Amino acid sequence: MRQLVDSVTLQGKQYGLPIAQETTALFYNKDLVKEVPKTIEEVVKIGKDKGFLFDVANFYPAYGFIAANGGYVYKNNDGTLDPTDIGLNNEGAIKGYQFLQDVVVKDKLVSVDMTGDLASGEFTAGNTAFYISGPWEVQPFKESGINFGVAPIPTFNGNPVKSFIGVQTAFVSSKSKNQELAWDLTKYLAENTSDILLETGNRIPVLKSVTESEEFAKNDFMLQFAKQAENGEPMPNIPEVQAMWGPAGENIRLLMTEQLTPQECAKMTVDQIKEGISQQK
To answer: Where are the domains of the chain?
Structure first.
């Protein structure tokens, strides 16, 4: 819960109330694989025969592999992010970029034109055993009739995959004439809509009283997403995050087509993020 509060806190001041969270996890086809591998290396090995897909060029699902060995976007100093300290060009980050290139070039698991929609469609059609995505896929997969399960993303190089966490948050306008009543309503909704968030929204409620309940334990899909979230980290909440998305995704695509090496991808991404931040001032 501390990291969720940090996600809505800037310079020591909390600006909103976390309502729910989401992250990516590993979907698997139970008709193609009976057990979930313990490591991503095993997923890749099995995937060469039975399929392993995700939207590689999308920095949201790709980031976990960059962060697994010590990469990071902005340095987190006890809840405060430092946009001058970008960790996407260190040794650990480069290992992640190498993995992203390998699944396309060396292992030939993912095509260069792969998108989230295409990967999701392949999983729905039963053409791939493994697929990394978020909880928004749960209901469509249920409706498709595919026999699937969800599991935390297996370790990469022996380390947890630190997937991004998105946090749905309630805010009250500083211009509101009824701020106290608005916060009371927000608090009430946070404490009394967990069943809707869970069953209809397929999101993880933030209240421990919910996630530690017997009822939550019965929802295995969301239970597995919650387990993955324990390894995750909230997306950066500072304005400089806007400088991250474009370079991060575009350079991975160049990596996939071998126009950049992992080292070049890492350096160019950091250089371009710094340039983007400078233009915000």
So the answer is: 2-269
CA gap 146, 252 in Å, rounded: 31
Q: For 250-264, b where at least 16 C-beta lie within 10 A, e where not — what string? A: bbbbbbbeeebebee
The CATH T-level fold of domain 2-269 is D-Maltodextrin-Binding Protein; domain 2 (3.40.190)
What span, in angstroms and rounded, lies between the C-alpha atoms of 269 and 42? 29
Distance, in Å, from the CA atom of 25 to the CA atom of 73, rounded to the nearest integer, reads 20
What whole-number distance in Å separates Cα of residue 23 and Cα of residue 251? Answer: 23
Do residues 160 and 12 lie in contact, with contact meaning Cβ atoms separated by under 8 Å? no
3-state SS, 192-248, equals HCHHHHHHCCCCEECCHHHHCCHHHHCCHHHHHHHHHHCCCEECCCCHHHHHHHHHH
Q: Tens of pLDDT along 207-249?
A: 888 888 888 888 899 999 999 999 999 999 999 999 999 999 9
- Tell me the C-alpha distance between 228 and 223, whole Å: 9
Enter the pTM of the model.
0.92
